[in-house]
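Sanity check

After download, print the first record. It should look like this:
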Amino acid sequence: DEIEAALHVSALDKMFPWLERACVEYDVQLFATTHSLETIDVIAASAKDDGLAAFHVNGSVGSAKRYSSEMLKRLVHERGLDIR
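Expected C-alpha coordinates:
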Protein backbone atom coordinates (compact mmCIF):
# COMPACT_ATOMS: atom_id res chain seq x y z
CA ASP A 1 0.00 0.00 0.00
CA GLU A 2 1.44 3.38 -1.06
CA ILE A 3 4.76 1.82 -2.10
CA GLU A 4 6.56 5.18 -2.14
CA ALA A 5 5.33 6.41 1.26
CA ALA A 6 8.68 6.21 3.07
CA LEU A 7 10.83 7.31 0.12
CA HIS A 8 12.08 10.67 -1.02
CA VAL A 9 10.98 11.42 -4.57
CA SER A 10 14.64 11.41 -5.71
CA ALA A 11 14.93 7.70 -4.78
CA LEU A 12 12.10 6.62 -7.09
CA ASP A 13 14.24 6.67 -10.26
CA LYS A 14 16.59 4.09 -8.74
CA MET A 15 14.14 1.96 -6.81
CA PHE A 16 11.66 0.97 -9.51
CA PRO A 17 14.14 -0.22 -12.14
CA TRP A 18 15.79 -2.26 -9.37
CA LEU A 19 12.42 -3.72 -8.33
CA GLU A 20 11.63 -4.63 -11.93
CA ARG A 21 14.98 -6.44 -12.34
CA ALA A 22 14.47 -8.29 -9.04
CA CYS A 23 10.98 -9.39 -10.06
CA VAL A 24 12.30 -10.77 -13.35
CA GLU A 25 15.29 -12.45 -11.68
CA TYR A 26 13.19 -14.16 -9.01
CA ASP A 27 10.17 -14.74 -11.26
CA VAL A 28 7.73 -12.98 -8.94
CA GLN A 29 4.92 -10.48 -9.33
CA LEU A 30 4.79 -7.21 -7.44
CA PHE A 31 1.45 -5.74 -6.46
CA ALA A 32 1.60 -2.13 -5.30
CA THR A 33 -0.76 0.77 -4.77
CA THR A 34 -0.13 4.49 -5.03
CA HIS A 35 -1.91 7.80 -5.34
CA SER A 36 1.32 9.56 -6.34
CA LEU A 37 1.48 10.85 -9.90
CA GLU A 38 5.29 11.07 -9.61
CA THR A 39 5.44 7.38 -8.72
CA ILE A 40 3.15 6.43 -11.59
CA ASP A 41 5.35 8.43 -14.00
CA VAL A 42 8.55 6.76 -12.79
CA ILE A 43 7.07 3.27 -12.90
CA ALA A 44 5.63 3.73 -16.39
CA ALA A 45 8.88 5.27 -17.69
CA SER A 46 11.08 2.54 -16.23
CA ALA A 47 9.00 -0.39 -17.53
CA LYS A 48 11.03 -2.29 -20.11
CA ASP A 49 8.21 -4.37 -21.54
CA ASP A 50 4.50 -4.82 -21.16
CA GLY A 51 4.94 -6.71 -17.90
CA LEU A 52 3.64 -3.62 -16.13
CA ALA A 53 -0.08 -3.08 -15.85
CA ALA A 54 -2.37 -0.87 -13.84
CA PHE A 55 -5.89 -1.78 -12.87
CA HIS A 56 -8.82 0.45 -12.12
CA VAL A 57 -11.24 -1.38 -9.86
CA ASN A 58 -14.90 -0.46 -10.01
CA GLY A 59 -16.23 -1.77 -6.72
CA SER A 60 -19.85 -0.93 -7.42
CA VAL A 61 -19.88 -3.09 -10.54
CA GLY A 62 -17.35 -5.66 -9.34
CA SER A 63 -15.06 -5.29 -12.34
CA ALA A 64 -11.51 -4.16 -13.10
CA LYS A 65 -10.03 -2.55 -16.21
CA ARG A 66 -6.41 -3.27 -17.20
CA TYR A 67 -4.09 -0.56 -18.55
CA SER A 68 -0.70 -1.41 -20.10
CA SER A 69 2.37 0.75 -19.41
CA GLU A 70 2.07 2.30 -22.89
CA MET A 71 -1.58 3.14 -22.30
CA LEU A 72 -0.69 4.69 -18.92
CA LYS A 73 1.89 6.92 -20.59
CA ARG A 74 -0.59 8.03 -23.26
CA LEU A 75 -3.41 8.69 -20.80
CA VAL A 76 -1.22 10.79 -18.52
CA HIS A 77 1.04 12.64 -20.96
CA GLU A 78 -1.00 12.95 -24.16
CA ARG A 79 -4.48 13.30 -22.74
CA GLY A 80 -3.61 14.87 -19.38
CA LEU A 81 -5.70 12.36 -17.45
CA ASP A 82 -5.11 12.15 -13.72
CA ILE A 83 -5.23 8.38 -13.23
CA ARG A 84 -4.83 8.49 -9.49
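If your output differs, re-run the checksum step. Summary of this record's structure: The mean pLDDT is 81.
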